[in-house]
């Protein structure tokens, strides 16, 4: 085994130990693990491409990768595509030229990224699709992901648990249609919400397509696409805010009161919550989210967002590094599931997610070492 791979293996084992330690860790202890330093000038034969700096989620991933790798002395190049598939492809070509052996890439647009994945495959580089699935190509070797169906289900279950009686107004929002995850989140949510729409607990207020399809327990991708087309935020705060305001303008006092909102992630949840909070006809709202962003954890503490779904990015980073090491060693990463990308079933090992509200926030976010208590004011 080369010294480089041995160093990587030590790093991986240290990471796994740090991630699986059963005692809650103080934040200081959760810092980057101590690993054997690589030889001088040694580089990791892995390149990382993330979708954009404009969505806080990916800054989290950059930081967690840096904690795990760069702090240990490895040089890893992390490039951002800034929501532009052409820039994404140029980033991948740049990394190929620099000699990477494994590409860890989270696509901006799942289908457009097929060309970048194929360029990497043609150069003999293993392609690991990170968090979002690259679609419509066989040039994907592995998919590192959370259980995104479970994310949507956890969001929907929260709304169901908080609702009583019938006729509760339900407003639906989704992510970007170019992101395969938006479909998985919506599918997971629909599985839980649809029976509760049929039994009258909820009444959908902002999607004629969802109303037209509300008797169908299982939707095709095209059907989900029709609904998502009406309720997409494009993962963008301003789009989310404008859509929520337009929905509130288009509905009447009777459609408001105590409302329930499926918001797809934390950034859009804050924007949507602000719009609903500013409407005098909304007396209360329950709103979902995901990512455990610092700003949303503060919103939960302040009673402005109801819940988030913690997807522990440290786990995803650990899984991505494990996959890279497996390929560098000539092996294959662990597989428990497959995800169809339109062409092939891509092997994966999805990670669990945790539903977080004010009740378990301290345990899930602070005691776990995910964020430091000093980031927040008014912790319970
Ligand atoms: C990720 C979410 C993120 C969203 C917007 C999704 O693909 O899974 O965690 O909030 O993209 O960036």
Topology readout:
Elements: H1 3-20, E1 43-50, H2 56-68, E2 75-80, H3 85-97, E3 102-105, H4 114-122, E4 126-130, E5 142-144, H5 148-162, E6 168-172, H6 180-198, E7 202-204, H7 208-212, H8 221-231, H9 237-250, E8 257-262, H10 266-277, E9 282-287, H11 294-301, E10 308-310, H12 313-328, E11 337-340, E12 345-348, E13 354-356, H13 361-367
Parallel strand pairs: 1-2, 1-3, 3-4, 4-5, 6-7, 6-8, 8-9
Antiparallel strand pairs: 10-13, 11-12
Helix pairs in contact: 1-12, 2-12, 3-4, 5-6, 6-8, 9-10
Task: Describe, in plain words, how this protein is organized in 3D.
With 380 residues, the protein is an alpha/beta fold. The protein folds into 2 domains: 42-146 and 313-349, Response regulator (Rossmann fold); 148-310 and 356-375, 3-Layer(aba) Sandwich (Rossmann fold). It has 13 helices and 13 strands. It has helices spanning 3-20, 56-68, 85-97, 114-122, 148-162, 180-198, 208-212, 221-231, 237-250, 266-277, 294-301, 313-328, 361-367, and strands at 43-50, 75-80, 102-105, 126-130, 142-144, 168-172, 202-204, 257-262, 282-287, 308-310, 337-340, 345-348, 354-356. It has a 5-stranded parallel β-sheet, with helices on both faces. A 4-stranded parallel β-sheet has the order 7-6-8-9, with helices on both faces. The protein has a two-stranded antiparallel sheet with strand order 10-13. Helix 1 (3-20) packs antiparallel against helix 12, helix 3 (85-97) packs parallel to helix 4 and helix 5 (148-162) packs parallel to helix 6 (180-198). The longest helix is centred in the middle third of the chain and has 19 residues, at 180-198. Beta-D-glucopyranose is lined by residues 55, 57, 131-132, 175, 179, 181, 235, 265, 290-291. Beta-D-glucopyranose binds at residues 55, 57, 131-132, 175, 179, 181, 235, 265, 290-291.
């Amino acid at each position: 085994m080369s010294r480089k791979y041995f160093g990587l293996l030590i790093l991986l084992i240290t990471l796994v130990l740090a991630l699986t330690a059963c005692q809650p860790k103080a934040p200081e202890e959760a810092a980057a693990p101590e690993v054997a330093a690589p030889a001088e000038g040694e580089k990791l034969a892995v390149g990382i491409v993330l979708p954009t700096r404009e969505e806080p989620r990916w800054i989290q991933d950059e930081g967690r990768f840096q904690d795990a790798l760069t702090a240990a002395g490895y040089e890893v190049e992390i490039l951002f595509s800034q929501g532009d598939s052409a820039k994404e492809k140029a980033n991948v070509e740049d990394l190929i030229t620099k000699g990477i052996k494994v590409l860890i890439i989270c696509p901006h647009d799942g289908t457009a990224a097929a060309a970048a994945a194929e360029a990497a495959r043609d150069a003999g580089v293993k392609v690991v699709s990170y968090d979002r699935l690259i679609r419509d190509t066989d040039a994907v070797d592995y998919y590192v992901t959370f259980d995104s169906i479970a994310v949507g289900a956890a969001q929907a279950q929260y709304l169901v648990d908080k609702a009583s009686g019938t006729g509760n107004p339900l407003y639906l929002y989704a992510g970007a249609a170019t992101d395969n995850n938006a479909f998985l989140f919506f599918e997971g949510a629909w599985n839980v919400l649809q029976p509760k729409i049929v039994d009258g607990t909820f009444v959908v207020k902002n999607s004629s397509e969802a109303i037209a399809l509300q008797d169908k327990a299982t939707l095709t991708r095209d059907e989900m696409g029709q609904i998502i087309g009406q309720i997409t935020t494009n993962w963008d705060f301003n789009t989310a805010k404008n859509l929520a305001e337009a929905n509130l303008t288009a509905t009447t006092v009777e459609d408001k009161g105590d409302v329930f909102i499926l918001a797809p992630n934390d950034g859009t949840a804050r924007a949507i919550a602000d719009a609903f909070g500013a409407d005098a006809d909304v007396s209360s709202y329950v709103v979902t989210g995901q990512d455990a962003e610092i700003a949303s954890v503060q919103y939960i503490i302040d009673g402005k967002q109801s819940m988030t779904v913690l997807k522990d990015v440290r786990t995803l980073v650990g899984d991505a590094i494990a996959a890279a090491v497996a390929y560098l060693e000539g092996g294959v990463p662990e597989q428990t599931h497959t995800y169809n990308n339109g062409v092939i079933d891509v092997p994966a090992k999805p990670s669990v997610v945790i539903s977080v509200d004010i009740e378990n926030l301290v345990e899930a976010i602070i005691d776990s070492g995910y964020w430091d208590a000093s980031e927040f004011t008014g912790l319970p």
